[in-house]
């Protein structure tokens, strides 16, 4: 009998979490783990206690910044990292599973938090129409193994 690997389970969870997002442009989920245990989860959206984009701006979404990104929301990786830090979780050596490869700003946070491995499902560069995945390039350059997720079984 083939069983899902933990990588597969955590990426499935990240995909499920993405569905919690109130963003009307893109739904992204993230899961932080260490040693097959979940440390923290997150999905993209405005800071807790503010508003929900799909409720306040259901037709167009929240205001955009100069790079045509949401000017109000935290990315899924940011939410997962912030929640973990807020609750005293140790992130050194953790693995991050995310449905969209990290942008450059999130990559800097991931590196600074001591996360050592990142799996992503879809390319941020393809989503944003950029020539390369700057966040992935940054992480790989500085020793954080970052790779596109491929389904596997144990």
UniProtKB/TrEMBL annotation:
**Gene Ontology cellular component list:** cytoplasm
Residues in domain CMP/dCMP-type deaminase? Answer: 5-137
Q: Could you tell me the Gene Ontology terms of the biological process aspect for this record?
A: pyrimidine nucleotide metabolic process
Keywords of the record: Hydrolase, Metal-binding, Zinc
PROSITE patterns assigned: CYT_DCMP_DEAMINASES_1, CYT_DCMP_DEAMINASES_2
Among CDD domains, the record links this protein to: deoxycytidylate_deaminase
Read off the Pfam families from this record: dCMP_cyt_deam_1
Binding annotation for Zn(2+): 75, 103, 106
UniProt-recorded name of the protein: dCMP deaminase
Q: Which domain of life is it from?
A: Bacteria
Which family is annotated?
Belongs to the cytidine and deoxycytidylate deaminase family.
Q: Which cofactor does it need?
A: Zn(2+)
A single Gene Ontology MF term assigned here is: zinc ion binding
Q: Fetch the PANTHER family from UniProt.
A: DEOXYCYTIDYLATE DEAMINASE, DEOXYCYTIDYLATE DEAMINASE-RELATED
* Active-site residue list: 77 (proton donor)
């Amino acid at each position: 009998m083939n069983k899902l690997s933990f990588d597969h389970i955590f990426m499935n969870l990240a995909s499920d979490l993405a569905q919690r997002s109130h963003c009307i442009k893109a739904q992204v989920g993230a899961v932080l783990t260490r040693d097959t245990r979940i440390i923290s989860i997150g999905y993209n959206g405005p800071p807790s206690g503010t508003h929900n984009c799909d409720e306040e701006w259901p037709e167009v979404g929240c205001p955009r910044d100069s790079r045509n990104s949401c000017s109000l929301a935290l990315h899924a990786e940011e939410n997962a990292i912030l929640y973990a830090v807020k609750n005293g979780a140790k992130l050194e050596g953790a693995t991050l599973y995310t449905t969209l490869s990290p942008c450059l700003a999130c990559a800097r946070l991931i590196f600074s938090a001591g996360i050592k491995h990142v799996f992503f499902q879809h390319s941020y560069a393809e989503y944003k129409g950029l020539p390369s995945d700057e966040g992935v390039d940054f992480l790989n350059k500085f020793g954080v193994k970052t790779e596109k997720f491929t389904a596997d079984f144990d």
